[in-house]
Amino acid sequence: MEHAVSTDPQADTAAAEDPATPEAEPSAAAEAEADPAADDDRTATDGAEPDGSGTAEPAAAEDGTGPVAAHGEAGDGDPGAAPPVSGRGGEGESPAGPASEADLGTGPAPTDDAAGSEAEAGSGADAEAGAGPEGTAEPAAEAQAAPALSEAQAELAAQKIERERIARRKAEREAPVEAGAKLSGKAADLLAAVRAVESGAKPSAVYFDEAPAAPRRPAPAPAAPRPAAPAPTAAAAPSADAVEGVRAVLARGGAPEALAAPAAAALGEDAAGQLTENPWRLLSLPAVRPAQADGFARALLGPGAGPGDERRTAVLVGWLLAQAGLKGHTALEAPVLEKALAQYGVPVPAEALEQAVGEGSVLVFQEPLGPPAGEDTEDAEQPVRVLVGLEGAAMAEESLADGLARLAAGPFGDAARWERAAGSAPSPSAAELIRAVADHGLVTHTGGEAARAEPAALATAARELGLRVCVAAHAPGGGPDPVTVAGLLSGAEGPGRDADGQFALDLLVVLDAPQLDVETAAALVECVPDGARLVLSGDPGVLGSAGAGRVFADVLAARTCPQLVSRTPDPGPLGELVSGIGIGELNQVDAPGKEVVIVPVKDAGEAVHRAVQLVAESVPRAFGIPADTVQVITPGHGGPAGTRALNAALKERLNPGPGRFGGFDPGDRVVHVPSAGRALAARVVSADAEGLHLDRAGERIVVPKELVESRVRHGWAVTAHQAVGTRWPAVVVVLPGDAAQALSRDWVYTAFGRGERHLSVVHGVDQALPHAVAEVPAKPRTTRLTGLLTALATAGAQPR
């Protein structure tokens, strides 16, 4: 064994992913983490891994001889190439990454989207199923041991409230043009802007929105007693008649009848009529791909169901944007979207996009790109990009920008008391943070693991000043307070709320801020009252959010609030190694205490064997760390050294048993996924008629038996997205040779940074590791938040 890492990168470089560039499909074994929350790859049949042959084809071919082909009349493009908005999406601080990494154009579609979005790469034979952060069904809530609301139910209720707020914002917009009508007004202007930008012509000034007005701060309302948490409104199950009607339509189109209930739930009581009128609405189901919907449409409509059918193109625009959302994008540039439409056989993509805008199914925006060319002339040309997005992400992003600007705008006093608190801070960086918060309502703070002490010092100082403070982290145990962001939003943790539904606090510190997606961040900021302060703290080098957006990075890029960069380095050999990775260098580090150990392996089988040996024997013997506190991290769920294979081997060694409770035994380490994007460590206690009983840090949780398959996974081995926000005494990172394509700098940075005392790297990727660190940055995401914040700050600075 060695104590150093090779630093010779390969000569070739890997550019940041362009969402318009198709990407070759990686092997199944090299699949990257497809789900930041779970490795749910079950199909509707038996939980078998989707491998291309296991995906149910929704429709027969036109001649009735078999399932829909990969290509069809609709022209889905080459099955080996993804459409322009597909690709790995970005595991990092730029698109989701986090979000689903499934190939938009090829491979089987996930059929169980309840476990969360697939966030770390991985289309192909072993693509992981999962719901994306946008446009997918809300997960069902788990039953708790007590009759009180479950955390997942309460979180869904809080998200419903935020959606209602966003809906009110949506109602303020102009009503959409009726389908088929000629565009007029702003929609027509913006579509004309698309054409002008593409042709290189100068866009008219009419295309540009006026600068948004700076938000005004109303006088804070007096605090009111905390109301009871809102009761969640469960989505009504479709009626038996609705399901039966859909089943009949599916049968006529040659689609599996198993899709009847999901289709009725997704489309409502009139689902049968909708599918009859527009068979492409079947794409509302995560299990369905365009080629399958095309075959279904041909079976119902006949040869006239061509690729240019307006019903098809309208649905396809929304589907492509939803797929982009799974990869972290909140919008797409119009030319990128048109290129994707062309790859799916749409004859005139520009007209299809115009139709979608006219129907109001998508929104179109323009965003300035830098200062106008030739500012000294009145007719200076303003470079812009035209973006298209779905209403949900667009409204959440605008609501978030308004909320952040609202918090940043207010005056703050009592500087003398804050200065005294800064004088007694435990470090210079903590003192700087305290001083910044004294005078500002919105502050960002960046740093590594050691820097987390600085927000903790700020919270202590604020409490000593008599302020109501809450520190919320992404995962349990991630901060000084036992509060998570999800628990805070659900009302299960943290302070109460006033009569207006806002948090009863004066300072909110959010740790692990890179894990905030736009919808979560919008809901959080909406609940912070006027006059309160918000601190977003995190490490910009880690993997980004599972949901759409890049909130923390966008706020940093906008530079509209104080940005504190910690000067506290992470200590020891592990800190030195991870710090180097953060700047693209895989350095040799001196590890006299064997803090870093490299274990070379030749193949996946040896990688699994060595990983089990390290967890069960070597690490406990050398460091006195119990095997139950050693965590294994690997790039993907599938393949011979993915999480499933590793968990099977680790269970056999550490807690063998027949798996009598749906594959689990008492004592098994598991990952519980109460909602999309969340992965919580737990341990199996027992099972009965109610479901599987888990213990999570002393809290008893009951997962109903019908949800066990989609909500619970063995947890000795996890993906880096599942591990983010949590640290363990020792970590074993397994890098099998076929995982090279899944590696990137932010993935390596995250995985290697999860160990507190020891890191073992089971290394089978040769020069792919230094190459990924030096040459493969996080994947970019297309978002609007930076531009929105900049515009609001500019408007606020203008004299009234």
TrEMBL record:
Source taxon at top rank: Bacteria
- Enumerate the CDD domains for this protein: SF1_C_RecD
Chain coiled-coil ranges: none
Task: From the UniProt entry, list the residue stretches annotated as the region Disordered.
Answer: 1-155, 213-238
InterPro entries tied to this protein: P-loop_NTPase, RecD2-like_HHH
SUPFAM superfamilies named in the record: P-loop containing nucleoside triphosphate hydrolases
Task: Name the residue ranges with Low complexity bias.
Answer: 7-31, 111-155
Compositional bias of kind Pro residues:
215-230
Where is the ATP-dependent RecD2 DNA helicase-like helix-hairpin-helix domain positioned along the sequence?
A: 242-330
Which segment of the chain is annotated as a signal peptide? none
Descriptive protein name = ATP-dependent RecD2 DNA helicase-like helix-hairpin-helix domain-containing protein
The species this protein was found in: Streptomyces venezuelae
Tell me the lineage of the source organism. Bacteria, Bacillati, Actinomycetota, Actinomycetes, Kitasatosporales
